[in-house]
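We read letters as residues; the integers encode the fold. Take this protein.
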Amino acid sequence: MASLLELKEIFRSADAVCFDVDSTVIREEGIDELAKFCGVGDAVAEMTRRAMGGTVTFKAALTARLGLIRPSQEQVQKLISDNPPQLTPGIRELVSRLHQRGVQVFLVSGGFQSIVEHVALQLNIPTANVFANRLKFYFNGEYAGFDETQPTAESGGKGKVITHLKEQFHFKKVVMIGDGATDMEACPPGDCFIGFGGNVIRKQVKEKAKWYITHFDELLKELEER
């Protein structure tokens, strides 16, 4: 088990950094915002709390929540235009600094591709570096389910994405940063997990993570050390 000092060294020398999106890169939970927008906010927020606590499988929770929301294509697009995701303070500067150092940055999210791509655009992250869930719609725009073949649609999916990235790009050190149980579970195969509590603190993650931060400035300072 790596010490905190060793984890910091891995972060400083990483060739790829993967960020969770909801409650990490952005301030809100995308699925909860979509639920509120569609009028079923309270019921879905409770399901999200259970999923983030790790008491139900991610796919089961996602299926149940989307079954309640049943968002149309038009509603998803209107949510992005009317209530665009709010970036967490410090993330823009951190991603920019990582890019300057030649580090590849990925967004690995249990949220939805259309919302996460909008976030990627704001951070100059290529859409090819986005791994998220894809909603499916009928030809008339009504909700038709989600793509269950995406690795991010199930528990352990973020670890599968990291394994794929290591195999495809031969990365030596991959860091995962996020607020939830699904992020922590991605290490291994990730080489370092950094728990993030700047928007919401998940008790289980705060207690178990060797390295836990509440502001991205803490990571910017680490990069300036070298």
Remarks:
- The chain has a mean pLDDT of 87.
- The chain has two domains: 4-29+84-224, 34-82.
- DSSP finds twelve helices and eight strands in the chain.
